[in-house]
Amino acid sequence: MRPLPLSRLAVVILAALVSSCGFHLQGRTPLPEFLRTAYVEAADPQTDFVQSLHKALRVSGAHPAQERDRASAVVNILKDEVSRRVLSVSAANRPSEYEVSYTVRFSVSRGDQEVLAPREVSATRDFSFDERLLLAKENEETILRETMARDLADIVMRQLSSL
User: Fold this and answer.
1) Residue 31 buriedness (CB in 10 A; 0-12 / 13-18 / 19+)
2) Is the pLDDT of residue 137 over 80?
3) Does residue 73 contact residue 47 with C-beta atoms inside 8 Å?
């Protein structure tokens, strides 16, 4: 048997190291078996966060249940709230900078048992505002909200994977 060339040996060693350290592709968060058919219960299933959480669950190999009675677990979205406040105003007393906060409170139950007590996660971003660029700044706020929702969904997925 011929020895492996040095470059192939390096690739084999690198692959062994990466697989042994728990590495997984970005976006794929391994979930416990009982969360593979979880139902996401929310007051408004169309929010940016709930949509991002559904997408993150599917990317991780889960098949979110469409009905609560067919689910192996329930992820309860207790709070899904976006708020905006003025950070600074111009000399003409017009807002020139806003802070957008996205807060999510969730819990996980399995049957009558609470698997994960209610937890709250939040993200905050600020952005400048100019009335002359109203349409662009509204679009910037929408993009910030969607990005924060994805970030929060990733945080929730990491917490779910640790169950």
Assistant:
1) buried
2) no
3) no
